[in-house]
Amino acid sequence: MKFFIVLFIFFFLDTGVTAAEPSSIPQSSSIKKNNTSKKSPLKNQKRKAKKKKNIPPMPPPPPPPPPPQEDIAEILYPEKLGETVSQAVVRLANRIDSFFGSERSLDEKNGSTLRIVPSYIFFEHKKPIAELGVNLNLKLIHLEQKAKQLEKAIRDEFVTSSPSDNKASSNVQKEKEKSSSENDWHYNFESKLASRPAIYYSGKLRARKNYTGHILFHHFSLSAGWDTDDQWSQKTTFTSDRAINEALLFRFNNDLSWYITEKLLQTSHGPSLIHTINKYNFVSYNFQLIFGNNKNKLEHWNTVYSINFRHGTPSQKIFIDLIPMYSYPKEDYFSEVKSLEVRLEYFFGDL
């Protein structure tokens, strides 16, 4: 009996151990699963690294193009190659000069012009000055034609036709021809007869040319002649225009006058701001510094502030100017001199 009891105890212990063994199996498997779950991010990283290694590298960027080289033809004749200033600047400058009756507008007209200009200048501490002038501007057409032929011969040596020029449309070609005609040389002879009440006469030959740039519109003129006041003299002017907007033009003026008979040299420099109020009213704000030589030394001679109000009639034949001015001349020991000029202009164009 005792023997059976001992066997039963051993059998019970034996079954208890074997029952505990299955419970230990899932624990070991869960440990393994946890280990594999910890190792999975590393494997994913390795897989991503392998995929990245298979991607081909990006090619290097192409080198930048070389800077364009400036040709001598582009310097001498930019209008031939289409590199002209904005047409808005040219139109505004032409409209303003035509309205003010400047020398440039008169020189570039197709015909000769005649102007009758009575004027009256009032001073604060001086007697007024009255003047009646007659200005005749003759256009030298034959001289302009000879100059165009010579310039065309020089232009053809520097500028050669390219395939792009051959493929250009007719409208583009017309614009180039128009721009080229605006920049041709203009030759005029100006004669003036005035009464102050003394008789004044002047006769001068003048050559003029425009230069167009990317931003500015330049004007160059060279004149020489004789008059009763200064006798033989020569004058060179160079002005630059820039349009601020459709109604406002900035201009910088440079003048060099050489009085040959008197052996004097005078220069004038200063800006002007010209405002288009409407079709018949313009105003110009001007500042000017005047220098001259004295015993081979350049000295300051005068400083001038002026405003030019100009009104035109619908016929564009009669104009009225009101010009208040403040000047500080050296001859008056740089004291202030106030003046007001009233001018009436009768214009007869294309004679």
Question: What's the gist of this structure?
Answer:
Helices cover 32% and strands 42% of the residues.
What does this molecule look like?
It is a single chain. The chain has a 12-stranded antiparallel β-barrel with strand order 1-2-3-4-5-6-7-8-9-10-11-12. It starts with a helix and ends with a strand. It is built from 7 helices and 12 strands. About 11% of the residues have low confidence. The chain is of the alpha+beta class and 351 residues long. Strand 10 and strand 11 form a beta hairpin.
User: Percent of residues in beta strands?
Assistant: 35-45%
How do the helices and strands follow one another from N- to C-terminus? HHHHEEHHHEEEEEEEEEE
Which bin fits the share of residues in helices? 25-40%
Number of strands: 12
The largest beta-sheet arranges its strands as 1-2-3-4-5-6-7-8-9-10-11-12
Question: Could you tell me the mean pLDDT?
Answer: 79
**Which runs of at least 5 residues are low in confidence (pLDDT < 50)?**
17-39, 70-84
The termini sit apart by 159 Å
Number of helices: 7
Taking all Cα atoms into account, the compactness measure Rg is: 44 Å
Q: How many strands, which pairing sense, and closed or not: the largest β-sheet? A: 12 strands, antiparallel, barrel
Shape: extended
Structural class: alpha+beta
Show the helix and strand layout.
Elements: H1 2-54, H2 72-76, H3 87-100, H4 103-107, E1 113-123, E2 129-139, H5 141-158, H6 163-166, H7 170-182, E3 186-195, E4 199-212, E5 217-227, E6 231-243, E7 248-259, E8 264-278, E9 281-293, E10 298-312, E11 318-327, E12 337-348
Antiparallel strand pairs: 1-2, 1-12, 2-3, 3-4, 4-5, 5-6, 6-7, 7-8, 8-9, 9-10, 10-11, 11-12
